[in-house]
Write a structure and sequence with these properties.
It is a single chain. This protein is 39% helix and 18% strand. The termini are far apart. The chain has a domain of 122 residues. The chain has a 4-stranded antiparallel beta sheet with strand order 1-2-3-5. A two-stranded antiparallel ribbon has the order 4-6. It has 177 residues and is of the alpha+beta class.
Length: 177
């Protein structure tokens, strides 16, 4: 995809520099203004990787597969993690897990590759958050349970189905129980 405007500097930014920043700063270095610790962020990096489909649909596919491996058997996900230590933070954020579903849908719509749904990846196991606990930084091990990306998406959707008294979905940092 190439953009041509009346401003040469804008063309330079849109046709190379912006994608370079996404790939190098956000996906590889993991060093945005608010993410200087080098962690992988479940929601943030899936959002960032969506733009890579125009450059390399394999890059988006690989991010989807990587992030699916950071979903717990219960359907929730690590909000962020460090691969080197197997440590990450389990939270009650209700939107993180649905970014996996959205990214898979975008990938399939863009590429037509429905085979991604059949790829099996393991879940994580970890101590669930106790009542009144909003987040917990801990070591999370790979589960022996391995399922298709399709089933990972189903678990995420089922975990997110929580509605308030007016029938509206609950969002934010709420109990995902």
């Amino acid at each position: 995809m190439q953009v041509k405007t009346c401003d040469e500097e804008m063309d330079f930014m849109l046709n190379g520099w912006a994608m370079y920043q996404v790939i190098v700063c956000r996906l590889y270095a993991r060093s945005a203004y608010y993410q200087s610790g080098g962690a992988f962020g479940f929601r943030d990096q899936l959002q960032d990787s969506l733009s890579t489909k125009y450059f390399s649909d394999d890059m988006l596919k690989n991010q989807i597969l990587k992030h699916a491996r950071h979903q717990f058997e219960e359907g929730d996900v690590e909000h962020w993690w460090h691969d080197e230590t197997k440590r990450g933070i389990r939270t009650r954020f209700s939107d993180d897990l649905l970014w996996l579903v959205y990214s898979v849908c975008e990938y399939i719509e863009f590429t037509g590759d429905i085979c991604i749904l059949d790829i099996e990846v393991p879940y994580l196991v970890g101590t669930p958050l106790s009542s009144g606990e909003d987040e917990k930084y801990d070591i999370h091990e790979e589960s022996e349970v391995k399922e298709s990306i399709y089933k990972h998406c189903i678990r995420a959707i089922e975990k997110s189905l929580s509605f308030g008294e007016n029938g509206l979905p609950k969002i934010g940092s709420r109990r995902l129980e």
